[in-house]
Each structure stands twice: as structure tokens, then as C-alpha cells.
Write a structure and sequence with these properties.
Length: 251
């Protein structure tokens, strides 16, 4: 990656993995910013902590994303947002990116493999919609330290199914009380141990069951994808999804 420099916002597991990946790719890490981590270079987003960074990469928390974006945008910095759980404020983010003339790219998962998996599930659900005897479901599992459940990736898979499977209108993500309704898709989450992430989409019938599954082998894939997104967004303006980058890869 040609002379790319980044600042990392949120210095947890993903922030640290991103720094390792940047070193491997020859990307300069200007700073790591985190108010709660003793190993971070800075506690706050300021002109000093972002000085020299082409792109700020956010792996913080859902509640911090818009504040982080506002501060980075005020300093004219492009952003990659890998944090999930804030998508109710997409319209606000789009307005902010436009007003500040910066580029922002976000997505529920920055793994290239997972994004290709999204496309596979998209096509599979289109096919299974033709066979109404099959019922769709989603199962995902992650390490015990993951803050959100279901994962942003699972919710994106759910949105794909809702878009393609006729008669399904909502995702059931909480505790199941009684029978599931015909217009619901059950999304099951498990948190235990150190599993970096497994997502399974199934289509079940009286006669057989077909499952598509993606299992992560670690956070490196997400970090590499985030760096690729940073390279991609630094010469763009406005709000973009990571799937737009995937469109260019598979075109």
C-alpha cells in the first residue's frame, strides 16, 4: 500500500491486530487512540493525535462512533468504521461526511471472505425462496468477550434473508418464548471461550438440511480488510459501504 498512514481509534483486540497488520503491509500507524487503554498513544481525538494520518480507522464502541466521526471529520480525516451496532445513525453519518467533504466506509465485517460469503448467501436464499418447504435460520458463535449479540455480521446475514425469502418479515434475536412465527427468522447467538467467530445460515426441511458456514481463523482477516478499505477510501468522498469495494474486486 503506497505511503498510507492511519490512526487507530479503539485499542482493544482489533486495534492491536490492526497495528500488527499495518506493520506487515508497510502502513504507518501514526497513533492509537483510546481513553481507557494504558498502551494507547493518546486518550483523545485531537489535531495532535491525528496529525499525519490519511485515514482514521475506528474499532471502538457503538456509542462512541458518531462522536469519533464528528471529531475526525472536523479535522478533515477520512474514516474506516469497523465498529457495529450504530447503524441507526447512518443518515446522520451520511450528512456529516457530505458536510465535511470526507470519505467514510463502513461495514459489519471487513473480511474479504465473509463479504464473498454474503454474496453466496444472497444467491442461496434467492434459490431457496423458490422452495417454500425450506425454512431459514442463522446461528453464530463468538468468544466470551464479544460485547454485542447477535453480531453485526449475523444481522447483515439476516437482512439478506429478509430481502430474499418471501414471507419472512423480521428477525427474532432474543430469547425464544414458545413457537416461532412463520414470518420470523431465528438468529441464535452463543458466547463462550475464545472462538473468533463462526456464522452458519441454514435451510431446513422435512427431507434434508443445507447449511452454509463461515469460520474465522482469527482477526487478521478483518484487519487486512480494514487496511484495504483505508487505501480505497482515502481518495473518495461521502459515505460508502465495504460491499462497494467488494463489487470492484469481483467485477
Amino acid at each position: 500500500m503506497s505511503e498510507l498512514s492511519i490512526a487507530i481509534i479503539g485499542y482493544g483486540r482489533m486495534g492491536r491486530q490492526l497495528r500488527l497488520a499495518a506493520k506487515e503491509e508497510g502502513v504507518a500507524v501514526i497513533s492509537a487512540i483510546d481513553p481507557n487503554d494504558a498502551d494507547a498513544d493518546y486518550k483523545e481525538i485531537t489535531a495532535e493525535s491525528l496529525k499525519g494520518a490519511d485515514v482514521a480507522v475506528d474499532f471502538s464502541s457503538a456509542g462512541s462512533v458518531m462522536e469519533n466521526m464528528a471529531k475526525a471529520a472536523a479535522l478533515g480525516k477520512h474514516m474506516v468504521i469497523g465498529t457495529t451496532g450504530w447503524y441507526g445513525r447512518i443518515a446522520e453519518a451520511e450528512r456529516l461526511a457530505g458536510a465535511r467533504n470526507i470519505g467514510v466506509v463502513y461495514g459489519p465485517n471487513f473480511s474479504i471472505g465473509m463479504n464473498l460469503f454474503f454474496r453466496a448467501v444472497d444467491y442461496a436464499s434467492y434459490l431457496f425462496n423458490k422452495a417454500p418447504e425450506y425454512d431459514a435460520y442463522i446461528y453464530e458463535s463468538h468468544h466470551s468477550g464479544k460485547a454485542d449479540a447477535p453480531s453485526g455480521t449475523a444481522l447483515e446475514l439476516g437482512r439478506i434473508l429478509l430481502r430474499n425469502v418471501k414471507g419472512k418479515r423480521r428477525l427474532l434475536t432474543g430469547r425464544l418464548e414458545g413457537r416461532i412465527k412463520k414470518d420470523e427468522i431465528h438468529v441464535v447467538s452463543l458466547r463462550a471461550g475464545s472462538n473468533p467467530g463462526t456464522h452458519t445460515v441454514g435451510f431446513d426441511s422435512e427431507y434434508d438440511c443445507i447449511e452454509l458456514s463461515h469460520s474465522s481463523r482469527g482477526r487478521a482477516a478483518y484487519a487486512k480488510g480494514a487496511l484495504r478499505a483505508a487505501e480505497w477510501i482515502r481518495d473518495k468522498k461521502g459515505l460508502h459501504t465495504f460491499s462497494e469495494l467488494i463489487d470492484e474486486i469481483i467485477r
